[in-house]
Amino acid sequence: MHEDISEVLFTEDEIAARVAEMGQRIAQDYAPKVEDGGIVMVSVLRGAALFMADLARKIELPLEMDYMALSSYGNATKSSGTVRILKDLSSDIAGRHVLIAEDILDSGLTLEHLMRALSTREPASIEVATLLRKKTKAQAAIDCRYVGFECPDEFIVGYGLDYAERYRNLPYIGVLKQEVYR
Ligand code: PRP
Questions:
Q1: What is the pTM of this model?
Q2: CA–CA separation, 141 vs 118, rounded Å?
Q3: From the CA of 70, how far away is ligand 1's center (Å)?
Q4: Neighbours of 8 (CB within 10 A)
Q5: Pocket test for ligand 1, best of 42, 104, 113, 166 (most atoms within 8 A of CB)
Q6: What is the b/e burial string over 39-59, where b = at least 16 CB atoms within 10 angstroms of the residue's CB?
Q7: Mutation probe of ligand 1 site: the residue of 43, 44, 80, 128 with most atoms within 8 A of C-beta
Q8: Burial zone of 5 (CB within 10 Å; 0-12 exposed, 13-18 middle, 19+ buried)
Q9: pLDDT tens digits, one per residue of 106-115
Q10: Would the CA dihedral through 18, 21, 93, 118 be positive or negative?
């Protein structure tokens, strides 16, 4: 796998340090919400599962973890613009504080769709923690309260991010060589 990476953007240690910082900040902000409806972390499968697992362990508060699956990319390198719900939440989120853990905000279509769908269920609040926010011109205006890193508009893989379902298990985040997907 490593030979397909042209540049490492964020090392395993850098990711771990940033996720720990995000978790501490979230724990401070969310401490009052534990008794006020409770906290449900929502992860968007499949890519964000790794980030959610690491982030949740850095938030020292009682919380629930739940999962949704949406898809917009398939095996293509650019978003098709269509977002499908493949799996819905198991929990009822009415009156609860929802924290969405996403691996990457790119076009923003996934989060736009997800936040619209979840807000109709009358949660007490919805916030987003994204590990990466891509610097792209055409990005939906998503209010992300917690952002791990800004990243360049490159085809990146690792730490949950895939190309054709590969590279998710790379412990770091890197740029995929063009020859792999061209
Ligand atoms: C990726 C990623 C985000 C979304 C971001 O998911 O995990 O959910 O794309 O892109 P956007 O901001 O342009 O909508 P993908 O649909 O590739 O599914 P995956 O998590 O299974 O890889």
A1: 0.92
A2: 17
A3: 8
A4: 15
A5: 104
A6: bbbbbbebbbbbbbebbbebb
A7: 44
A8: buried
A9: 989 889 889 9
A10: negative
